[in-house]
Structure formats: structure tokens, C-alpha cells
């Protein structure tokens, strides 16, 4: 039983570290591509404007989940591609069904008018589940070579060195006690 507890105690920080690294790397990659990365239907997106303030602001990261259009309702916050193929995250103000097709009217919380573009189900990327304040600034910084080095390579190298050291340390102590 003690062995299991030791293994779990060692595994939890590793799993948390890997999840954080996956989120940061996915944000980094999604900033450099036209399509956001998806982890089991969940997509981290960086907020680039204050159109949804005070709900969330530029620099925040939102986590969206792919959803069936039938499950969306007024008041939900969705991410979608507009007519110019820009990724937008706004609140649904109304849903209108025409000829069996749902049309979603959206508006930013900080905007005075409903968006001109009407969104259809095939343009929707996902529904906002939660947001992490200011994490997007970190992902924006990691886009540059210095930020990538400081926030990805250095911690990863430190983690590998620490892991190797922890493996070597017990062996050296055994040799010391034998002599």
C-alpha cells in the first residue's frame, strides 16, 4: 500500500506539469495556425480584444468545448468563425430557425450592437466553459524565441535534470554507506 501512495505522490506533480505544458504548447501552436487545437473536444483560445469585458478581457484564455448546436441557448458564450474567417467569441443574443437551419445572433458584452454576421452551426467552434485570467499574455510571450526558451525549454530542462538527479542520488548514497 505504501508503494502505491509513493507512486501516486510522484505521479500527481508529473501529470499536472504535463497538463500545464500541453495547454501552453497548444496555445502557442494555435496562435501560429488558423485552427485551434483540440484535446478531447476541449480547445484553449486566447482572447485578443476586450469585446467581452468584463466577462473576460484581452489576454485571458478561454476553454471551449465542442457542442451540438441543439444544446446551445440564448446567453451562452460561443466561439465561431465570422465571414472574414476570424475566430470570434461572443454571447448568443437570439436563435432563429429558418428552413430547418438555426441562425445564431451574437454580441460582445462590451459592444453596443448585435454583430452584423449571422452565425450558423457549422461555423461554431465551441461553447465557453471557463476562462483563466491573463494566461494568454504568457502564451503571447512564448510566441517569441526568448519567451519560448524561458517558459518552455528552461523549465522542461530543469524538470529532466531534477528527475535524473533524483534517480542518481539514492545510488550515490548506497555507495557511500557501503564504503
Concise account of the structure shown:
The chain has 3 helices and 7 strands. With 179 residues, it is of the alpha+beta class. The radius of gyration is 22 Å and the shape is elongated.
What does this structure look like?
With 179 residues, this protein is of the alpha+beta class. It has two domains: 2-143, Umud Fragment, subunit A (Ribbon); 145-179. The protein has three helices and seven strands, in the order αβββββββαα. The protein has helices at 2-31, 135-141, 145-178; strands spanning 42-46, 61-65, 77-81, 87-98, 101-107, 119-120, 124-132. The protein has a seven-stranded antiparallel β-sheet with strand order 1-2-7-3-4-5-6. A hairpin with a 2-residue loop joins β4 and β5. α1 (2-31) crosses α2 (135-141). It is elongated and about 80 Å long. The model has no long low-confidence stretch (mean pLDDT 83). It is an enzyme of class 3 (hydrolase). It comes from Rossellomorea aquimaris. It is a single-pass type II membrane protein. Its EC number is 3.4.21.89. InterPro entries: LexA/Signal_pep-like_sf, Pept_S26A_signal_pept_1_Ser-AS, Peptidase_S26B.
Amino acid at each position: 500500500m505504501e508503494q502505491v501512495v509513493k507512486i501516486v505522490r510522484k505521479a500527481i506533480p508529473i501529470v499536472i506539469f504535463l497538463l500545464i505544458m500541453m495547454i501552453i504548447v497548444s496555445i502557442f501552436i494555435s496562435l501560429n495556425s488558423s485552427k485551434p487545437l483540440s484535446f478531447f473536444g476541449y480547445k484553449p483560445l486566447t482572447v485578443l480584444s476586450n469585446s467581452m469585458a468584463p466577462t473576460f478581457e484581452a489576454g485571458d484564455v478561454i476553454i471551449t468545448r465542442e457542442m451540438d448546436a441543439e444544446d446551445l441557448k440564448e446567453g451562452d458564450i460561443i466561439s465561431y468563425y465570422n465571414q472574414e474567417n476570424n475566430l470570434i467569441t461572443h454571447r448568443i443574443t437570439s436563435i432563429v430557425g429558418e428552413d430547418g437551419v438555426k441562425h445564431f445572433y451574437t454580441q460582445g458584452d462590451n459592444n453596443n450592437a448585435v454583430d452584423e454576421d449571422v452565425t450558423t452551426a457549422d461555423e461554431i467552434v465551441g461553447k465557453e466553459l471557463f476562462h483563466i485570467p491573463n494566461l494568454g499574455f504568457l502564451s503571447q510571450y512564448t510566441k517569441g524565441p526568448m519567451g519560448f526558451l524561458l517558459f518552455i525549454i528552461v523549465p522542461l530542462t530543469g524538470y529532466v535534470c531534477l528527475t535524473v538527479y533524483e534517480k542518481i542520488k539514492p545510488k550515490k548514497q548506497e555507495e557511500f554507506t557501503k564504503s
